[in-house]
Known about the structure:
By secondary structure, this protein is of the alpha+beta class. It has one domain (about 5-235): Pseudouridine synthase. Helix content is about 20%, strand content about 30%. The protein has 5 helices and 11 strands, in the order E-E-H-E-E-H-E-E-E-E-E-H-E-E-H-H. A hairpin with a 6-residue loop joins strand 10 (about 190-200) and strand 11. The longest helix has 12 residues, at about 35-45. The protein is globular.
Amino acid sequence: MKFIILYEDNHIIAVEKEAGILSQGDSSGDPSLLDMVRDYIKEKYNKPGKVFLGLVHRLDKPVSGIMVFARTSKAAERLSREFAGRGVIKMYIALVECKNLPAGSDWIDCEDRLVEKRGYSEKAGGDSRNVKTAKLRYRIMASNERYALLLVHLLTGRKHQIRAQLSMRGMPIAGDETYGSTEKLPAGSICLHAVYLCFKHPVKDDQVELFSKAPKRIAERIEMGDTVKEKIITLCGGGE
């Protein structure tokens, strides 16, 4: 099993995706997290026939972190609407190739016009078609002689958005050769991790708040002492 369960009830299930695993199946025929979680539910609850599992959002194959799936059609409809309406708080940590950036207390806002190409996104030109506005903000949490650790608050959901927008600012994510990284990581992974997700439960009248710790490929490349970890948790939880 290539995932850790963070939350589970009769309506939804949230898990940690490993880097290098597809969110859902494609023409490659490689295993996907959607199929893995569906198999888990089928086996655990001894369900006959095909198990319903709704995909309401995705993570790129090289990215790890929190994903939530719907276990009923009602939950799928409501969650899909919530994600599409930008009612979900999505936070990531990104380790970028940009040395000695001073950690700060301010969020840095980024807004760009992106156009999707086959397999990547780039800054839109004056004559580009199908242009989409991409918004995020980031905060520098720590840095060393090679990397900087950013906490990223994703405000829109465009193809490869964080990867493209950070690269455009001279901060390619470590391992992301598509967007200018000089480093190659195992299993085609990159140092981008969905660390926090907050959304309204599709059936219950409460908020679901999920955290995921930094994966080894990030933590081993930069010092993440307790202060940095606590700061990330505080910021994700709306403490500042």
